[in-house]
Each structure stands twice: as C-alpha cells, then as structure tokens.
Amino acid sequence: MDESKESKSPRDTEGHGTHTASTAAGSVVANASFYQYAKGEARGMAVKARIAAYKICWKTGCFDSDILAAMDQAVADGVHVISLSVGADGYSPEYDVDSIAIGAFGASEHGVVVSCSAGNSGPGASTAVNVAPWILTVAASTIDREFPADVILGDGRIFGGVSLYTGDPLGNAKLQLVYSADCGSQLCYPGKLDPKKVAGKIVLCDRGGNARVEKGSAVKLAGGVGMILANLADSGEELVADSHLLPATMVGQKAGDKIREYVTSDTSPTATIVFRGTVIGNSPAAPRVAAFSSRGPNHLTPEILKPDVIAPGVNILAGWTGATGPTDLAIDLRRVEFNIISGTSMSCPHVSGLAALLRRAHSKWTPAAIKSALMTTAYNLDNSGKIFTDLATGEESTPFVHGSGHVDPNRALDPGLVYDIETSDYVNFLCTIGYDGDDIAVFVRDSSRVNCTERSLATPGDLNYPSFSVDFTSDSNGVVKYKRVVKNVGGDSNAVYEVKVNAPSAVEVSVSPAKLVFSEENNSLSYEISFTSKRSEDIMVKGIQSAFGSIEWCDGIHSVTSPIAVRWRYQSAVSM
C-alpha cells in the first residue's frame, strides 16, 4: 500500500464515503451548495445519529475479508444500522459466497438493520445485487430539482439538458459543432480524439464506455471548447448532471438522435450551450426511476421481489472530502466541501438514515419489522399523480424496477401492520432453496444449529416477506399459494383490517381470510394468498411475460400495501 496516496484508517481520500455518510447522518449546514448549485440547508436523514466508519475499500478494490471484518466489528461496537453502498459487479453471487449477504445475516441476527445499494448496472433485467431477503435493497430515483443546460443549435432548435459546469459560459455566439465519431473516437476516449478536427469546436460525444467527466476531459485536452453528451438507447431519457471541466451538457436519447442527425446533415452545423443554474418544480415529474438503477427479477430467488424500495439517488448534494476534486480526475484541482453525484450509492444512505430514525422511534422492532414498515408504506405515484416513469424506457415503472415504491418517512413511523421475520425463518428459507447444514453454517457459524429435514418452507415464497413475487411455470399448474403473518403495531389493539386486491392482468388473486380482526390477546394474524393464472400454456409462445398488481390491508387509518409481480415462464414447444 502506498501510504502517500491512501490511509489504513477510514479517512476518506476518494469522496464516496464522505458523501454517503453525510447523506445518512450529516449535521445541519446552512447555505450549502456546489458552486451555488442546489444552494440551501443541507442535513442528513438522521442528523442526531452517530456515525461509525469502517474501512472496507482500497484503491485496488473492496475485499471480502475487509467487508466481513468491518460488519462483525460494527455489530460488536453496538451500531443499529449498517449502510453499505457497495456490491458485486454484475449479477449477485450466491448467498453463501457473498460476503455482504453473510455479514448481513449475522448483523440481522443481532438486531442490526443492513441497508445496501441495488447497483448501477441497469437497465438490464436481473442486475440487482445485495438481494438476500435479510438485506434492505435500495434502488435510485430522481427528485424535483434540476440543473438545466440547454443546447441551442444553429437552426434555432433548443434541446434541454443538464450540467453542473462551474466555469465561464460559452456566450451567445454559436460555435462549430462536430460529432466525435468523425473525430477519431465515438465515445470520446482520452487521447483518441483528433485535435485537428476538435480544436475550438463543440464536440457531440456518445454516452457509454468510460466516465462521463472523462469524456469532457478528453475533449478539453484535444482542444475542444465544449461538449454535448448524448444518451444512447440503454440510457434513454435519464439525465445525470456532472461538474465538467469545460462547458458541457447531457441530453437524452431523443434529443441526441436529433442533434446527431443535424450534425451529419447540415453543411456547417453550429451550437452553443446555455446554463440556467438550479430549478425546482414539477416539470419534469418526480420521482422517476434512474435508468442506471439495477433491477429485478431476483435471479437467485425469483420468489423474493427485489429491489425493495427506491430513494433519491440522482444529482444528490452531500459532503465531500478535501483530498480530491469533485470529478476525481487527476487534472481537476478544485476542492469543495459539497459535491453533487448520482448512483444507488446515494439512495442507500437515505434509507439507512430513515432506518435509524425508525429504530429510535421503535427500539423493540426487529430489522425485518423496520424493513416492512418502509416497504408497506412506500408510494408509487409521482408528483403529477401518475405511476413512476422508468427513465430507461419512458414507460411506466414496475415493481421489478422500483420494488414496493418510494420510501415515505412519516408514514413508515406508523405502518399499522408489519411482516416480521426471525433468524430461524431465514434459516428455514435457506433450507428451502437447497442449502444443507454445512452450507448454512457459513451464516449461523455453527452447523449443529441446523437440521434442514425439520425446517424447510413449502416454497421460498412462504418467507414472511412484505411483497409478492410469483413465477408461473409448468410445475406450478397455474396456481401458486403463499402464507403470511402480520403483526398489529398500530395504536388500536382491536383494529380490524380488510383487504383490497388489485389483481395483475390475467391473474386471479384470492386472500383468505379477507378480514383480520385483532385483539389484545392476539396481535398477530395469518392469511393465505392464492394466485391463479388465467393464461394457458399454448398461448405463452413468446417466453417470459409479466404482470403487476398489489394487495392493501386497510383499517380506515392505515394502508398496508404489498406489490405483486407475476411472471409466466412456460417453455415453448420444441419442433422435433
């Protein structure tokens, strides 16, 4: 280890840890901003919580041994919440070889909530990581704050973009516009652009392949004076603001396609970029789900819906280290106290802080109860009253993308009912998915505690989870049944809840009983939910198809909502 470049202590030399920690539990700071962007009062979610920081990552990566050691030490130190904005690269590994899943199991057993980022590998399906059912898995969404930076073309057309550029503007004069694909590097890799074609011009670069701020740096080093960063299909209309080192803006795929067409068809294309600071309002609607946010279905255990919730993770202002610039590029000599960045790393600590507040308000609740409260009180409508938009597609988001919905702190304080899960239930779950006593010893650290012949569930979906994920296959015969137990934690010990069913298309959903009558002597009641497919195998020739719905338990005060995600995975007939 080069101690001149990094420390053995948790001292932050990169910025990520400072940003996430201050989001979860940072103190109140007046007039915080990033070069006047997002100016206002900054505060963490749980401002009076204390932060214990543990080093798990180095410049060469994050190692399993460090992750497990840090989680064990955190539990030994008496923390109440562990916030982990890290995860596997790509698909989630099997639970018994996943250091985070193993460490989180032990933490949960000791009453510690573990909140983790879902990953930034979207919009591909089944890309969510940290999907163990004892982990609170957090995806990323937008907020109602934008940093507009418009592209004005030579023909007068204007396209909206976003930027956190902090230097001198380009001015009103339009400059020559070129496309990076015609200048040596379509993705604007450093050292690949031809200075003879770029110098003094604005360069249109395609998103992908390398860091967004690195593209701007490549343009600047080649002599370019500005950059328009245009999304391709996989990023859709997602806009992420960056603190570029030259005048630059990001535009969505639709605008990018039109600008590309203009550059390649006009004999003398020109453009300029106008930066408009910070704008707060209802246009565009928020929250929306980030295209980069990793998604389900859960490829390890399809019966467990992941991610669990969404929270703010796009263009988030929080604290920053003084050891590096806001872009983390070597040529960026700026030093700031606050930075604005994006990722599920940013959404995770929002929920971690909320979990700390719930733990304070309800000290006897288990980690599963806290997780249930956050999930069953989440909402699914943006500030225009419509279902969240998935920025990857421009269409309505689904529970495979946003889980139970966007966390709602005030409602989570009083959820009415919770779906509780004990450590023994998780052991039963592991037995059900095929683990034996030796495998499970990795989690419980004592193989003598486990005898799977006596403790498996009927199906992994019988784990008392606050959401429902159903796979119809040839083996299911078109019917899937799950059991659930809910605990009354509301103020009325004699509450009566009735169920409302919003059935997915082509699925019949029945709940028995349809009414739950609680009493002082019986504050936990069970129900069975049955899903019956109304589609026949012979019409399922296009592979996997999905449908979504929900159930809601209501007592006139509380609404306890659980999403339903259904997939049909009948195998098509094969010609012989």
TrEMBL record:
Pfam family, one: Peptidase_S8
Gene Ontology BP term (one): proteolysis
Region of interest: Disordered: 1-22
Domain Peptidase S8/S53: 3-389
Record flagged with keyword Signal: yes
The protein's name in its UniProt record: Putative subtilisin-like protease-like
Domain PA: 175-259
Superkingdom of the organism of origin: Eukaryota
Family matches, as Gene3D superfamilies: 2.60.40.2310, 3.50.30.30, Peptidase S8/S53 domain
Family per similarity comment: Belongs to the peptidase S8 family.
Keyword annotations: Glycoprotein, Hydrolase, Protease, Serine protease, Signal
Coiled-coil segments: none
Domain Subtilisin-like protease fibronectin type-III: 462-566
Keyword Lyase recorded: no
